[in-house]
Design a protein that fits this description.
With about 120 residues, the protein is an all-alpha fold. It has one domain. Helix content is about 60%, strand content about 0%. It has four helices and no strands.
Length: about 120
């Protein structure tokens, strides 16, 4: 039998390693960078992109719904690699950096989706 240690936040009484907590923590730390990256793609507004994920963190939403939202977000980011983007002044000649950013965020969202699947 495999045992799993569940750490409970003493302030809230909620387990720390839940799928929604991991996603919320990721968005708190990296959401503004994701928004900044998506500013280059007018077809995908960053705040709307992020709020689609955040809606799945609301009370009453299920982990499978969160997993699906994360997978769809990952697919969207990877699809943007084939689209033209509106460069910002700091982007001169840096398409590879934009592609790397899209891949990095997509990989993290996929990691979160897989974690949600196994929690």
């Amino acid at each position: 039998m495999k045992h799993q240690l569940i750490t409970v936040d003493p302030r809230t009484g909620v387990p720390q390693a839940t799928a929604s907590r991991l996603v919320r923590s990721f968005l708190d730390r990296h959401g503004s960078g994701l928004d900044d990256l998506l500013r280059r793609f007018p077809s995908v507004p960053g705040p709307a992109f992020r709020s689609a994920i955040e809606r799945c963190l609301a009370p009453g939403e299920t982990v499978p719904e969160l997993e699906i939202a994360l997978e769809e977000a990952c697919d969207t980011l990877l699809a943007l690699r084939a689209e033209e983007f509106k460069p910002l002044p700091v982007d001169a000649g840096k398409r590879l950096n934009i592609d790397a950013g899209l891949r990095w965020y997509a990989a993290r969202l996929r990691d979160l989706a897989q974690a949600a699947r196994h929690m």
